[in-house]
From TrEMBL:
Its EC number is 5.4.99.5. The gene is CM2_2. It catalyses: chorismate = prephenate. This is Chorismate mutase. Residues 134-244 form the Chorismate mutase domain. Keywords: Amino-acid biosynthesis, Aromatic amino acid biosynthesis, Cytoplasm, Isomerase. The lineage of its organism: Eukaryota, Viridiplantae, Streptophyta, Embryophyta, Tracheophyta. GO terms for biological process: amino acid biosynthetic process; aromatic amino acid family biosynthetic process; chorismate metabolic process; prephenate(2-) biosynthetic process. The keyword Cytoplasm applies.
Amino acid sequence: MATNSLTLESVRHSLIRQEDSIIFSLIERAHFPINSPTYSQSYVSNSIHTFSGPLLRFVVKETEALLAKAGRYANPEEHPFFPEDLPPSVVPPHNFAKFLHPPAASININKDIWDTYINKLLQLFVAPGDDGNYASTAASDLVCLQALSRRIHYGKLVAEVKFRESPQEYEPAIRAKDRDTLMKLLTFEKVEEAVMKRVAKKAMMFGQEVTLNKDGNHGKYKVDPSVVSRLYGDWIMPLTKHVEVEYLLRRLD
Ligand SMILES: O=C(O)C(=O)C[C@]1(C(=O)O)C=C[C@@H](O)C=C1
């Protein structure tokens, strides 16, 4: 959809569609055990002399450099995890609709998303163990991180739509830099409850074992639906709202 015709309904529709990408990415990652060397400082530092840090960081940084050349970060909906030293795009520029207020470009909370994903989320939906598939694990993590980052930063568009629909409601709190009031104004508890129920239902549908026996494998899911609901309730929606507040605070700059 063209961004100049966005409405609260259409941005919510995009968030609903992005749930599919997030849940599928979690299912793919849960296929591997935790594989902790992927995240350890020492695993690659001894062998890749030009790089220090965990394998996941290596994979994400190198992939982002390639995608930057292909023009990915020219799209205001995409945010790199390692914005420093990215190479310029080599493809012809695309004229993306300028829907967001320009200071939006300064908001990138990928560092928080990275820390939350590695330190809090992973252990909730991935089994312990080590099967040695560290590169594939990092590739799956990259897909999860990109899907989460896109969804959470989509809060900028959601906030812009809300602001345009009722600027008079938001302006006093923006001028007063009143984060608590902004948070209250942009929160819809009923919508959040529906999101948590829907993602659990999707996790059941997308993550069920499909068998050809009549009895099937009922009640066994690739990712626990209640965990997916918790990821949304405790982290994904709060981080999205954090982006919405940060965006609104800059909306009158
Ligand atoms: O749908 C909205 O109004 C949003 O701002 C998105 C979202 C979410 O992250 O899903 C965040 C805040 C609202 O309380 C409800 C849902």
